[in-house]
Amino acid sequence: MAFKKLAGQSLLVSSLLLAAAQAQAEKFELQLPSSAPEASYDGRLILILAADDSKEPRDQVSADFDAAQIFGINIDGMKRGKSAIIDGDILGFPARSLKEVPAGEYTVQAVLHKYDTFNLANGKTVKLPAARGAGQNWRKEPGNLVSKPFKVTFDPDSNKTIEVKLSEVNPAIEEPVDTEFIRHIKIRSELLSEFWGTDVYLRAHVLVPKDFDKHPEARFPLAIFHGHFPADFGGFSETPPDPDAECVYSKRFDLDCYNKVEAQEAYDLYQYWVSADAPRMLIAEIDHSNPYYDDSYAVNSANIGPYGDAITYELVPAIEKEFRGLGAGWARFLYGGSTGGWEALGVQVKYPDEYNGAFAACPDPIDFRQFMTVNLYEDDNAYYREGPFTRIDRPSHRNYLGHISRYMEMENRWELVLGDKTRSGQQWDVWEAVFSPNGPDGYPQRIWDKATGEIDKDVAQYWRENYDLRYIMERDWAELGPKLQGKIHIYTGDMDNYYLNNAVYLTEDFLEKADPPYEGVVDYGDRAEHCWNGDHENPNAVSRLRYNTFYVPRILERIEETAPEGADLTSWKYK
């Protein structure tokens, strides 16, 4: 009996020692320097472990299964010189915890994505990353603290602590400079400043026509080229490509020297723009980056603010005043791809009299019955489909052959690691920030539980009534139809990587039977991936670089067809 008792005690002691060892598994101590510019910080600490040392770990972070490993924790009022711990209990991606990270050598880096405090007009207070010039890129945002990369030998079964010192500060970003063809405008938005409780600015990078300054009498049509955050007007260069430039491979298109293709297309746009046959008009790219994302989706939102009104009624008139726009709805157009495609169609639907056409390429979901691969109104879970005996994951990314590379749960967990409360600055979170009602805590209400995927049907109904573009058009077509005739043009590849063609199919079903007829275009690219724009002659790798030259001639045709009697169709047609 005594022996049995001793053996039982030995087993108990062994179990306790094993539990203690697991509790003391290897961890990371992230330290703010005593020399940090600010006395204390709020924000998200992001730890990165990379198996590849060819570039900095922060530049290897993505939602892919083979990306760098990340972990994230919030800090609130953390003082300079203090530290925080990331251990085996912290959620990660792709591995869920440090306990699941294989032993081996890794390059380590940490970033503090700092938050500011906003006292909103609705009386609520939130902490969010202010837009500071990098388009909500946490890797580059000025003022963020960063550690220098270093190598470690990691063992999940060890009990040592690895120190990571965030000794560097991201520098400020220089303002773009005016040139002969690219001009810039920045305005303080009264509407947005009131919403956010602080000064908020809107910017635009405007491509002006040849000899703009030599023709002060001319007034011009305006096209808004919607899309993600632009540091400046993109894809336009007065300098020929450098034949000696080092080649850069494009993983997306599996093309070597794709940087040279981009450089040539940018120079070709310049040559077209200064030719005798080029249109004399204004093209603007808008910087409406905000605390939730690199742009606002250009519509009014309970969480992001009245960006739709601010852009349409404050920024667009300011552009037209500064650069001699014609200043009328018949002479304003919208186009863009992906996010920009949704924005082009969304703004046209929300402001039907203020714009004369939308060219929406590969738009983000425009019918929420196919929100990528989820029916928000009928499905119970965004991550899985369930049968009586098993469940299968919902995909979120594929190639043109249908091979799946990412799943819904993967992408959403990746975002949750980067930031809670819809603060990741990534795609699923921005849809939530734009489309959701404001929650009791001041942050967006979740469309689904980020951990489980369970859909909130009340929030889904709010989305439908306010942002489901197909539903809104069908619901209000008696009023909208006459205003939108000839203005809706939608293009998508039938193998869009993000399944965006599914929502276009459903939208086309409505448009084809709409009364009065919509008199527009819905077109599909055979086996074309994201982001096909209607060009049947060239592959995506090329056509995506030709939005301006591809759409501008069609814009001019509609101007001439729909201009009211007495409209100025001559002053801007100089050679």
TrEMBL record:
It comes from the Bacteria. Residues 1-25 form the signal peptide. It holds the Pfam family Esterase. Keywords: Signal. This is Esterase.
